[in-house]
Each structure stands twice: as structure tokens, then as C-alpha cells.
């Protein structure tokens, strides 16, 4: 089995081997997701190879499954391929996440040459320094180069990527991750809460809301998952990921990931709201945050379930069909 690291700031993951397709509305994109710099995936079929379904890939495209279980196709030029031992070593490094859009510079000063422009959610390996530079962190890039990032732009990486080694056809994602982490599937969420939030469900729920709100104003992008543009499920799944829990990437409840349906009247801050083809994160007091393609907003905004709230959206309230929770 082979693996790869996303080696561009934002890597498009397509749902088909073709990047566009015909629809009733005309030619549309087949983008399904985005991989962010430093994140990893399993390579199911190498460029030009034949998939398990008998499809011959274009020579420039690989079939991949992300560490959180999303299947798709990526241009090989945007990946750094590696073997299992190399990836194990890679993941064993000290990791930090870009907590905002940030530059990697050649020097620990603003006049340094820009090596890379990264989006929120990108991963970097932090390196020790004998003589640290105040306000800066020394990091290593995927290609081996080193550079500096403002320390204030970095956050801990709270999510595991180990399922990349254990995912296989027919195996549920939570079982794959639990196998890699050496625990039972039902222990995954409590372990994340214990590690990052002192076991507090309330602290976790609050963290989810705050992470999601950091994307306010970001433009809506179909299949997007970065500050350049993000879609509804990209927003919700990214907020959960950055808080340490991996949920299903798309806007529906799927067995094998930790989210499950609860009664609507039990909704609490941090739960997910499901509409046909759409998902939002509930913030409490009737309000929710979501990335919407609606013409009047076209991005990450706040709306409300309360008819008396000026942010009320009747069309969404009428179509709300489920509430999802980890608890």
C-alpha cells in the first residue's frame, strides 16, 4: 500500500476522474473536497493504474482516500508520494496547525523571502531551536525546506491521522481509526475530550462554536475547506476536526462516523443541523452558523431558527430534518 502527503496549500479532490461533467445547468465541476498542505492520504491506485472497479486512471491522476475517509481523485503533481515507513516517521514529528492564513518565510522577520502561503488547517512540522527567535517558530516543509512562521499563527494539531494506515474497502471508518489508535470505536470521542478538554463536554461544545466562527465571512466554495472558500460540510467537518473529532465530510448522517441523530428538541450548542443537501452548526439560543451559496450572502454567516430573530431563514427551518450529535 502506498501513501501521499498533500504538497500544495490547497489540493482539489475530485469525485470523478474527470474534472468537469455535463448537467442540466451546463458544464459543472466534479470537485468534492480539498486536501490541505501537510495532511495525508492513502493511495488506492497510482497514476495510470486500474482501480478496483476496473477504471483506468489518467496518467496524471491518483485515486486516494483521505485520513478522514473521503474518497476521490487528485492530480499526482500535487502529492508527495511515500511508503508506510516514511509516513510513520513523518507523522511521529511534532506537529502544529496553521490557525490562520500565514506565510512561511526564509527568515524570522517580515522581510524574509516568502516560501509558501498556507491556509488555516495546514500542517507543519515544528523544529527545536537552540536559540529561539521571539515570536517566531522554525518549521519544516513537506519538501524538506525549513522556514519561519509567526508563533501566534500556530495551534496544536488535535486530530489523529492514523486511520490512513488501516482503512480498507468494507471497513467502517470508526473501526479503522480505533484499530489504528488501539481502542474501541466508542472510546474515540471520550479520548479526544479527555486529551484536549479535560473530559468536559461543555468545553468541547464551546470550542466547536468558536472554531466555526473563525470562518465567518469566508466565501462559499463548492467542495471548499479553507479560508479561500468553504462549503457547508467543509465548515462543520473542519470545526470538528480542529477540535479533535473526525466526522463525515458531506452533509448527511452516515454510519461508521461518530455523529448520530438525536431528537430536535434536544439540540445543544455544537450539534449539527441537517437540511436536504445542507448542514449547519448550532450555536445556541436559536442561532446557527453555516456556509451558504444563497445569492444574498454567498458565504459563512449566522442565521436563526427563531421567527422573531432578524436572522431567521424560514426556508431552512421548514426543511430541517435531523439534528446530529456526538453525545
From TrEMBL:
<keyword id="KW-0788">Thiol protease</keyword>
<dbReference type="InterPro" id="IPR000064">
    <property type="entry name" value="NLP_P60_dom"/>
</dbReference>
<comment type="similarity">
    <text>Belongs to the peptidase C40 family.</text>
</comment>
<dbReference type="GO" id="GO:0006508">
    <property type="term" value="P:proteolysis"/>
</dbReference>
<feature type="domain" description="NlpC/P60">
    <location>
        <begin position="202"/>
        <end position="324"/>
    </location>
</feature>
<dbReference type="InterPro" id="IPR038765">
    <property type="entry name" value="Papain-like_cys_pep_sf"/>
</dbReference>
<dbReference type="InterPro" id="IPR051202">
    <property type="entry name" value="Peptidase_C40"/>
</dbReference>
<keyword id="KW-0645">Protease</keyword>
<dbReference type="Pfam" id="PF00877">
    <property type="entry name" value="NLPC_P60"/>
</dbReference>
<keyword id="KW-0378">Hydrolase</keyword>
<protein>
    <submittedName>
        <fullName>Hydrolase</fullName>
    </submittedName>
</protein>
<dbReference type="GO" id="GO:0008234">
    <property type="term" value="F:cysteine-type peptidase activity"/>
</dbReference>
Amino acid at each position: 500500500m502506498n501513501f501521499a502527503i498533500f504538497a500544495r496549500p490547497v489540493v482539489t479532490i475530485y469525485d470523478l476522474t474527470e474534472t468537469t461533467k455535463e448537467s442540466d445547468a451546463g458544464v459543472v465541476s466534479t470537485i468534492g473536497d480539498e486536501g490541505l498542505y501537510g495532511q495525508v492520504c492513502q493511495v488506492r491506485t497510482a497514476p495510470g493504474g486500474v482501480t478496483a472497479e476496473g477504471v483506468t486512471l489518467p496518467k496524471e491522476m491518483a485515486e486516494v482516500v483521505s485520513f478522514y475517509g473521503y474518497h476521490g481523485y487528485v492530480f499526482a503533481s500535487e502529492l508527495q508520494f511515500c511508503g508506510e515507513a516514511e509516513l510513520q516517521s513523518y507523522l511521529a514529528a511534532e506537529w502544529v496547525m496553521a490557525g490562520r492564513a500565514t506565510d512561511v518565510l526564509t527568515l524570522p522577520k517580515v522581510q524574509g523571502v516568502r516560501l509558501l502561503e498556507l491556509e488555516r488547517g495546514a500542517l507543519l512540522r515544528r523544529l527545536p531551536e537552540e536559540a529561539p527567535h521571539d515570536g517566531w517558530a522554525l518549521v519544516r516543509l513537506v519538501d524538506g525546506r525549513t522556514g519561519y512562521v509567526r508563533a501566534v499563527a500556530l495551534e496544536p494539531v488535535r486530530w489523529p491521522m492514523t486511520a490512513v494506515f488501516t482503512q480498507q474497502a468494507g471497513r467502517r471508518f470508526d473501526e479503522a481509526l480505533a484499530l489504528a489508535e488501539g481502542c474501541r470505536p466508542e472510546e474515540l470521542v471520550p479520548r479526544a475530550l479527555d486529551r484536549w478538554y479535560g473530559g468536559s463536554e461543555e468545553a468541547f461544545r464551546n470550542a466547536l462554536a468558536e472554531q466555526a466562527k473563525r470562518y465567518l465571512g469566508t466565501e462559499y466554495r463548492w467542495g471548499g475547506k479553507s479560508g479561500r472558500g468553504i462549503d457547508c460540510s467543509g465548515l462543520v467537518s473542519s470545526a470538528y476536526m480542529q477540535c479533535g473529532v473526525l466526522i463525515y465530510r458531506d452533509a448527511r448522517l452516515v454510519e461508521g462516523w461518530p455523529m448520530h441523530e438525536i431528537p430536535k428538541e434536544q439540540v445543544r450548542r455544537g450539534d449539527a443541523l441537517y437540511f436536504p443537501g445542507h448542514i449547519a452548526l448550532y450555536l445556541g439560543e436559536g442561532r446557527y452558523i453555516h456556509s451558504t451559496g444563497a445569492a444574498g450572502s454567498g458565504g459563512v454567516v449566522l442565521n436563526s431558527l427563531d421567527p422573531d430573530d432578524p436572522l431567521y431563514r424560514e426556508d431552512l427551518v421548514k426543511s430541517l430534518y435531523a439534528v446530529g450529535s456526538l453525545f
